[in-house]
Amino acid sequence: MNVEILDGPSVECEDYVRREAQARLCHTPSWSRMVEKVFGHRGYYLVARDQGGIRGVLPLTHVRSRLFANRMISQAFSDYGGPLVSVPDALEPLYRRAVEIAGQVRCPSIEFRNVVALPYDVESRTDKVAVLLPLTDDPQGVWASLGHKTRNRIRKAEKEGFVVKSGGPELLDEFYRAWTIRMHQLGTPCYARKLFAGIMQSFPAESRIFVATLRDVTAAVLFVCAFGEWAQSCWGTALREYDSAGPNYILNWMAIEHYCRQGCKWFDFGRSTVGSSQFEFKRRWGGTVTQLYYQYWTAPGHALSPVRPDNPRYQGLVHAWRKLPLSLTRFAGPLISRSLA
Question: What are the residue ranges in the chain where pLDDT is below 50?
Fold first, then answer.
């Protein structure tokens, strides 16, 4: 099995990823090129081949940061990543080549964001899960499967007068304003607007924004990426003052209806931390809770220091961030979050 680094656009690789049932948008070479174009992070897109053609891929992004350490991620700015293989024999060569490249560029760690755990002696986190809701061609089939409390919350939001619209780049400013307000409240540096613009430019058919308004005021927003049989909620929030009225329920339901009609088989609510309020919200939809395996190779002599909000190293920064003016966080947040990936 030969492993090469892709050095340009490849229709063959794009087609390979689209044929694999477990692939996500982040596995495509186009995602790696988008991240490199938007943020300048060097990508190493590994392709395993034998005489029969491509047998596996592994997208890597090298993120250099003084604050958050020098690391490789598979895949940056995504919940997923890790090796995507069609034959077991492709896994080992891809993994070993990734380790080899990390050594060559003096990168002390690699983070693999897997659905299936890698069979290697690496450190692992299992606090992240995804909730996957099966879809049908007829949205009413999904509606009937929902618990009565969830249906009642959707009906309540409808009675409150929330209206949901969806579309493309024309809704990006509206999405970004609401999303950055919530990130400020949480004490989390926001991503740059150019990330979302880059996704919509690179994947116009796969990306979509949903917005819930109440009397023409934005209350909740959702950014969804669809790929193959999957529709994934990537970024979303409801503004705190509207939480009790349930705009997130009608927003997600309208997205589910849309992707039922688009022929998707699964609605992925995105990753969340077990026990968090986000996890409880997602679990109420009755989907399957799927374990995510975030695994870390570290170079000999290096200790792992994962970038996560509950790391005591960052707690003081989180509290201080909430006290900053919103306008300042919108300026400074993208400078910091480009390395959070």
Answer: none
- Identity of the amino acid at 153: R
Tokens standing for 131? Answer: 């909730």
Closest CA to 102 of 143, 58, 146: 58
Residues 163-197, buried b or exposed e (16+ Cβ, 10 A)?
Answer: ebeeeeeebbebbbebbbbbbbeebbbbbbbebbe
Which residue from 60, 59, 79 is spatially nearest to 17, judged by alpha carbons?
59
If we measure between CA atoms, which residue out of 63, 37, 60 comes closest to residue 337?
A: 63
CB atoms within 10 A of CB 206: 18
User: What pLDDT is stored for residue 148 in this prediction?
Assistant: 94
Structure tokens at 290: 């799927």
Query: How many Å separate Cα 47 from the centre of its chain?
Result: 22
Which run of H or of E encompasses 129?
A: strand 128-134
Q: Residue 42 in contact with residue 60, Cβ under 8 Å?
A: no
CB atoms within 10 A of CB 230: 21
- The rounded Cα 154 to chain-centroid distance in angstroms is 25
**Alpha-carbon span 220 to 240, nearest angstrom:** 9
Whether the predicted model's global pTM rises above the 0.85 cut? yes
Could you tell me the CA-to-CA distances from 103 to 41, 119, 161, 271, 305 in Å, in that order? 17, 20, 57, 30, 18
**Residue 105 burial (CB count, 10 A):** 12
Query: In degrees to the nearest 10, what's the CA dihedral of 124, 80, 6, 32?
Result: -120
Residue-wise burial string across 80-103, b where 16 or more C-beta atoms lie within 10 A, e elsewhere: bbbbbbbeeebbbbbbebbbebbe
- State pLDDT tens for residues 243-302: 889 999 999 999 999 999 999 999 999 999 999 999 999 999 999 999 999 999 999 887
Predicted pLDDT at 325: 85
Single-letter amino acid, residue 14 = E
pLDDT tens-digit readout, 197-217: 999 999 999 999 999 999 999
The residue type at 231: A
Choose among 135, 138, 124, 164: nearest CA to 247. 164
Say how far apart CA 97 and CA 6 lie, in whole Å: 13
